[in-house]
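In the previous chapter we treated chains in isolation. Here, by contrast, the input contains two separate entities that must be folded as one system, with a combined length of 586 residues.
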Amino acid sequence: MSAIDIKNLTVKAGAKTLINDVTLSIEAGTWLTIIGPNGAGKTSLVETVAGIRKIDAGSIAITGQDIGGLSERERARLVALVPQNPFVPSGMSVRDYVALGRTAYHGMMRAPSAGDRAIVDSVIERLSLQEFAKRNVATLSGGERQRMVLARTLAQSTMVVVLDEPITGLDLRHQMDLLELLKKEVADCGLTVLATLHDLTLAGQFADRLVLLDKSQVVLDGPARDVIRNAELASRYGMQLRVVDVDGADVVVPVRS
Amino acid sequence: MTFICLLLAVFCGLVVGPTSIGTSRIFGSLFAHLGIGHSTLDTMQTTIVWQLRAPRLVLGLLAGAMLAVAGGTYQGVFRNPLADPYLLGVAAGAGLGATFAIMDVGHAISTPTWTPLIAFAGAMLAVGCTWLIGGRGMSSNASTLVLAGVAVAALLTSAQTFLQQQASANSIARVYIWLLGSLASASWSSVNLALPYVLVCITICVLCGQALDVMSVGEDEARSLGLPVRRVRTLVIVASSLGTAAIVSVVGLIGFVGIIVPHIVRLVVGTSYRRILPISVVVGAAFLVFADTIARTAVSPSELPLGVITALVGAPVFVLVLSLRRIQQ
């Protein structure tokens, strides 16, 4: 069964077309990463799936439900988002921030219930955030902060998670840590992941499937290894790329012209 | 602590005044109203306590609570620490309405009882214009609404200035006094006029504290978390504006309460609106009654403008709390 079903999706911002007639289907419990040059439409696509952008034509169904007709609350119970630049309100504790993920369950005029708090505590434990739980979010390092944002997303208890450049600004170790955490959630909980990444090597190593987006349209779609090794990839980035096999893993190396 | 301050403010509001009346006799009269014992106040003292001080106290509590919670709510919904209850043009609209009524434009509405009603209509008209120009608030973003509020306020203030230029010296003085805000003309009828609006609006604002916490991550993220952002924004803006308009129409423009009180509360209890808003209600109420006690007793038998006292007391207290906070950090 498809966890995400995108059919003939078109999204515009004024006269500019951000997504042009895109059709994609993502199997439940798999990881699909969208790659592509800047301005290809990657962020617009994940934001539309998360319900932030308006659909101009076509449809998006999450676990069989068309999100076009859903309220914010209903949609947030189906799909959770890690935005590209999450805003972290200074002064809020890590636990309170993670608890924001329960908004769709307790309603806009009620505080989180005991059940909500139990889920928040369990996610905090799962992501090893206990020692930070009472700290002001403004005092966290980049890596800790991104782990906290992921915890908020997992607290939403959805089966589909979309992430827009989740490793931007992190050092190599924290990039790997975050993606490994996510991979574990996919394996353990059957989570479906739709992500955008600029790092082609990491995109190829963690995703089951890659989609190359360029000029608002799907150019390549297939298993990670096939897309990474396709000559079209380099031409779309307008540069030379070399793919090196390191212990069975593809490493994408840019080559100076 | 905050409730002790509130009780102390209520005590000051009833007991302190130019006419000395024993505390025990005032509270004896209070208990007599509750059916316990009997009052020992004479007719003059009964009038002073129950027709002058009590409505003034109640109106002060309502005004302080409403302005403080509206300021806190606006700061949350617009994510702007400089937001105050007059952000969307309530003050300018009410000011124009009051000027219109005080100057008796058209010689058709010349009674003091009309002033609050015309001021209220002016305030609501101003917010209505802001709402329409700002894209009905539902479809626009928050900053568009704030800019529309600035434009409407500027337009109405210039209209008010034009009207004032045509006025007599006596009318100008009365408009000026109204603009500075005062509880001197408080009566049970003005309490009755504001009470229903204020109670409903404060309740709505306080209940939306959790939603404002979610909105602190930004409108797009809040929407992705499942918050109906536009509905929340509409609800809290309507509640804050309506409550502020009701208060401003009966007490005039009292500045600083709406901006200073929520900030002081935030510095003490943290950034969660679930705590800031209910505590601002109590602190705002106590603060305004204390300020009014100073305003009516400092240069007795005349009175100081209430807005002057709220700024004079509020600003140093704010600086003190800010300094203590820095030392703690």
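Chain B touches chain A at residues 207-208, 210-211, 213-214, 216-218, 220-229, 231-232, 270-272, 274 (CB under 8 Å). Residues 131 and 203 of chain B are 22 Å apart (CA to CA). Compare these points with the single-chain example from earlier in the chapter.
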